[in-house]
Amino acid sequence: MADGTSDKSNTVALLLCFFIGFLGVHRFYVGKVGTGILQLLTLGGLGIWALIDMIMIILQKFTDSDGNILKFN
């Protein structure tokens, strides 16, 4: 979007991260395919990387592949 807000949902990303974050699915959802593959191969950085992502999503600091903040809904 033009205002710096992504069209991807914060809630969807949070749910994906919470339930299957160790597979990096939330990163694929926001378009970060490269780091999604890395998370998939490392099981979310042994859970640490997925946990950090979850905290970033909760704090509304997680961005999509274009650097836009996820929309909160």
Question: Would you give an account of this structure?
Answer:
The protein is mainly α and 73 residues long. The chain has one domain. It contains four helices and two strands, in the order βααααβ. It has helices at residues 10-20, 25-29, 33-46, 48-58, and strands at 5-9, 69-71. The radius of gyration is 11 Å and the shape is globular. The two termini are 15 Å apart.
Order of helices and strands, N to C? EHHHHE
* Count of alpha/pi helices: 4
> Which parts are unreliable, with pLDDT below 50 for 5 consecutive residues or more?
none
Percent strand equals 5-15%
Query: Radius of gyration, rounded?
Result: 11 Å
Structural class: mainly alpha
Topology:
Blueprint: E1 5-9, H1 10-20, H2 25-29, H3 33-46, H4 48-58, E2 69-71
Helix pairs in contact: 1-4, 3-4
In short:
This protein is mostly helical and 73 residues long.
Which short descriptors sum up this protein?
mainly alpha, globular, 73 residues, two-stranded parallel sheet, 4 helices
